[in-house]
Amino acid sequence: MTSNPNPEIDIHDCVPSSHSKNSISGFGSNTIRLFREDDWEAVWQILSPILSEGETYTFSPSTTQEEAYRLWIILPQETYVSTDTKGAIVGTYYIKPNQPALGAHICNCGYMVSPQYRGRGIAKTLCLHSLSRAKVLGFRGMQFNAVVSTNMIAVKLWYSLGFAKIGTTPKGFYSKTNGYVDSYMMFKDLITGD
Known about the structure:
Blueprint: E1 9-10, E2 31-34, H1 40-53, H2 65-74, E3 78-83, E4 89-97, E5 106-113, H3 122-136, E6 141-148, H4 152-160, E7 164-175, E8 179-189
Parallel strand pairs: 5-6
Antiparallel strand pairs: 1-2, 2-3, 3-4, 4-5, 6-8, 7-8
């Protein structure tokens, strides 16, 4: 896999060419850039409450800060943050091979947005950025392994960005609120766009 030496991008640059730069509203001059070590405390402040909810990620709700750092920063190939116009971190994502060796041409990503910034299109923009980065890095597809069926906002977003549900694990996720619920495997081909 190759790497772009300057992956800091104005978030509007990740919009597909079929969209105008103004088609994503409410972002001003927000930026998506590579994670830096001094970002960790702000990233942890996003991850911690989301993981504690136990509703959208298979990580333990009691994940420690050290374990979260390993999962979100060390293991992925790249980790990004989205900043607002004042430089505050409002969202983050990672990208990594979904499998080792012979399956490493398909990537996997995880996204989190600060709860107070939800509903502003940040997750969509993070995903668009990750799709662009995945192509630059040489991945041929993107796969989400366990999209929780009760996380309808995410399910609808991934469908809207061209992902297809390619499988269901019956009762594959234990929700703190809903008990055992289905989880979906979702995929987007980065070569054909399907």
